[in-house]
Specification:
Layout lengths: L2 H12 L7 E2 L2 E2 L29 H8 L6 H9 L8 H11 L4 H5 L3 H5 L6 H19 L11 H12 L6 E7 L5 E9 L9 H10 L4 E7 L9 H17 L2 E8 L3 E4 L8 E3 L4
């Protein structure tokens, strides 16, 4: 091995406590805070294609991996290119500011809210929405087999990644087989929960089609407080009665809050649980 290669190995070995692997030019950089991006020699307002190749987010991802990029740089890659409203990094900064610096808050924004950010058009809003939804599905996915529902905690674990940050209510039905494994997640309604707007056939038609043994109802409270309302309990009773008619049991109606869940079953008054830390 030549002296140059030996020097490279010594650099890598002497820094073995770092988690980042070695590249052809030495150790890869750690992810940089978004605040450090302002110190880059290339101004963020300049078009990114005019930056040195080693400073561009896309090239940095190719050579250092996505874990080495700051959140704003990852967003800039989704945005693609800037325009009259500044570079892709400028637009990414505005998006993060709109979400209060939180990816969860950013994920709660609707399509039109994303489009309202200067520099974000329909195509960019669609890409960001798709990326956020993919991250939610990764978080909810269980490898190997369908998730099994043993109780409300399992419902929260499965559905909270999608429901907890929404700015509107969504009412879902989890269709279960005889072993309480989820066959399908059916979106029944979107908007304020109202018994007059929820027809039992929207819940039980897919359940019958899938030869379901039971269903679990679940919806979110955008306020973060999962305490069931009188209307929540009325919807539960209505669907329990319909389930008895068709022979499909309603096992539970779980209300998702921010870090908490509650059951809207009539016999579960006061059953409000906080999710334990991992």
């Amino acid at each position: 091995m030549g002296a140059r290669g030996a020097r490279h190995d010594r650099v890598c070995m002497s820094s073995s406590s770092r988690s980042s692997p070695c590249s052809a030019h030495g150790l890869l950089p750690d992810p940089e805070p978004d605040s450090l991006l302002r110190a880059r020699p290339s101004p963020a307002s300049a078009p990114i294609h005019t930056w040195p190749a080693g400073e561009r987010p896309r090239e940095r991802l190719q050579h250092a991996g996505p874990q080495a990029l700051a959140v704003r740089e990852l967003l800039a890659i989704l945005i693609g290119s800037g325009g009259r409203d500044g570079s892709a990094l400028d637009v990414a900064r505005r998006l993060l500011d709109r979400g209060g610096g939180s990816l969860r808050e950013l994920g709660s924004l609707g399509f039109q809210e994303l489009r309202a950010v200067p520099g974000v058009g329909s195509a960019t809003a669609a890409r960001i929405g798709a990326a956020i939804e993919l991250s939610r599905r990764v978080a909810a996915e269980e490898a190997g087999e369908r998730p099994r529902i043993r109780g409300p905690q399992d419902v929260h674990r499965l559905m909270a990644p999608h429901l907890r940050d929404l700015s509107h209510e969504e009412f879902h039905a989890l269709i279960l087989n005889t072993r309480h494994r989820v066959l399908r997640d059916v979106l029944v309604t979107r908007g304020i929960l109202d018994a007059s707007l929820i027809h039992p056939r929207e819940v039980f038609r897919p359940a019958i089609a899938d030869s379901a043994a039971s269903v679990v109802l679940v919806h979110n409270h955008p306020s973060g407080d999962p305490e069931p309302s009188p209307e929540d309990r009325r919807v539960t009773r209505q669907l329990q009665e319909a389930g008895r008619t068709v022979g499909i049991q309603v096992l539970d109606h779980v209300v998702i809050g921010d870090g908490r869940w509650a059951s809207a079953l009539p016999e579960a008054v006061g059953r409000d649980r906080e999710v334990p830390p991992p």
